[in-house]
Write a structure and sequence with these properties.
The protein is α/β, with parallel strands linked by helices and 687 residues long. The chain is globular and about 85 Å long. The protein has 4 domains: 200 residues, 3-Layer(aba) Sandwich (Rossmann fold); 197 residues, Rossmann fold; 104 residues, Orthogonal Bundle (Arc Repressor Mutant, subunit A); 72 residues, HRDC domain (DNA polymerase, domain 1, Orthogonal Bundle), CATH 1.10.150. The protein contains 25 helices and 18 strands. Strand 12, helix 12 and strand 13 form a beta-alpha-beta unit. The structure holds adenosine-5'-diphosphate. The site of adenosine-5'-diphosphate has 19 residues, from helix 3. It holds the Pfam family DEAD. Keywords: ATP-binding, DNA damage, DNA repair, DNA-binding, Helicase, Hydrolase, Isomerase, Metal-binding, Nucleotide-binding.
Amino acid sequence: MDQKMEQARAVLASRFGYDAFRPGQEAVVSALLSGRDVLAVMPTGAGKSVCYQVPAVVMEGMALVVSPLVSLMADQVRAVQEAGIRGAYLNSTLAPGQQAEVLRRAAEGAYDLMYVAPERLADPRFAEFARTARLALIAVDEAHCVSQWGQDFRPSYLSIGQFIAELPVRPPVAALTATATDLVRRDIVRLLGLRDAACTVTGFDRPNLRFAVERREPKQKLARLDAFIDERRAESGIVYCAKRATVEEVCDHLRERGIAATRYHAGLTAEERERNQRAFVNDTAPVMVATNAFGMGIDKSNVSYVVHYNMPGSVEAYYQEAGRAGRDGSPAECLLLWCDGDIATGRFFIEQESTHEGLTAEEAEVVRASRRRMLESMVGYCYTTGCLRAYILRYFGEGGHDEALPSQGGATEVAPYGGAGAGGANLLDGAACAPDSRDGHAACDPTLRRGGSWSALPTEENSASSSAKRCCSNCDGEFEAVDVTAEARAIMRCVQALRGRFGKTTVVDVLRGADTENLRQWGLVNLPVYGTSEARRALLMEVVELLAADGYLAITEGKFPLVGFGPRYREAAEPDFALRIKQTPKVRKGSAAKPPKAARPGAADLGAADAELFERLRALRLLLAQEAAVPPYVIFHDATLAAMAAARPATEEELLALPGVGEKKLATYGKAFLEEIASVPEATEVE
Ligand code: ADP
């Protein structure tokens, strides 16, 4: 086994140019090499693909990768080929003759790795091939798509389990996902039929991401976005919007301001989506405005900000989308702009959703209830005055629940998880917790940050620039906290008096002593709580939402939502109960929040001449990418170019020592980059 792991490390170094596995990767690779199933839960950007790509090279036979990302498969395969791995893909974009050819070559053992869409597994010709092929392993990417509980359910994923079960020789199966909830993880194990799976959960912290939340009325959002982007004109970023119409509006607006923005949503033709995605990846349109249809599988390493123009439906969706920033470990910003209307839109989406295929009405209602809870957690994130990073980490089971924390110093645990017959205790019990949204700055407290984190760039110079902890707008005090404890207590008393039989408006009307027919008709004007608050109506409404988001109250769904007590209602009666509400300062020209400027990878460490070299290397990469018709990152990531510009390697050995340079890439591109570096004179010290 040790020998196999050594081989795996050698492959990581020679093909990918990386010195070491990240902790989570090591556990997954080692489990697969020993023939064991794995459930790997790692956040976006943690490096899931290496987990199956390295074993694909080390193990006998071909690795089959099931992925929902048909439009990206060609790029994924180009990327592995650039690393010297024999990769192929089989999907509907190939003509029937080409498909037959790929299958024929696969049967001859021509590939280490093959990507297929889940639909392919139901094709009899493919099933026939798989029965006789020698499969090293099966990797199910984005494995949460198998579950109706999650955000991205794909019915075609349901056929994977059966496909695996029918194989005459069952290879180890790796399910990879960034999802958090326990229900989804259990579904993955059950529906894919994982057996005695090693469960690996890496630390979810992304230290190089800085989080910011700002409440902005719809009319203010564009101005805030303008100010934010103006500070980052040279950077690449993504702006997520909840609706297609908003994507259009925001994208048009940015273009009118001279920003090279492009758009992506499900209402565009496949050709336009493909074209726009490519323009973004190739940096000809560095700003992407999109709905959540965009982004899965996009490995663009130099995205330095992700703005959410609306509140997403869950913390998971948020973290997955925001996590597309700073993949290479450079400082990056994640800004969420939200308003009350976003909550209403979120609720509307949940109630309207009709894609609960194959579920009974009762089951569909359970799914909806789960979505509502997820939305409440997201609302809680927007409202919290505590550390945003801590909030997210608690949601993912880190920092708030000791039983779910990996052991001190390690970012990974491997624990048996479910599967056929294995019902024992496991790491995930309680891990997929509802967030504890009590205020706190746990993530800033090093004693609580035991989940460990991965650093994208393990080299000295880069880890130095990315290790500096950048936290969040709350920790940086970018809001005014208003104490609303008195209002909260009044609301709790009122809800008790109304016995959960009325909605938010009535609760607020009673407290403010409104003189309405409705209140008289129900006799509510005689209650002792009637007219006991002088607070503004809007503030009381907000405090009701905050109490609900924190679990002190619960708001029912449907046409006439009723306000009742939530699971934490008793805590609101305790003497130390306190509640604060956030108020975001107005947009000032040039940014309200004044976040530290996001820098391109390594740029902060580069002198003027090195920055020039970095730009020259980027231009060279673009040229080579155009010649080879691949996205630039497939050749080298920005972080690798930054390392080149800083280290100025003069020989092939020196170049090979840099992160992200493997033997194949050295052979293909080494000469061109070394020549370019040699052609730019080194910076001389200027007084
Ligand atoms: P995920 O699929 O988990 O979102 P990816 O597989 O796309 O993440 O990897 C994210 C980035 O991390 C990629 O740029 C990849 O090359 C880089 N990476 C992966 N493994 C390592 C490693 N061991 N050391 C350094 N960088 C790595």
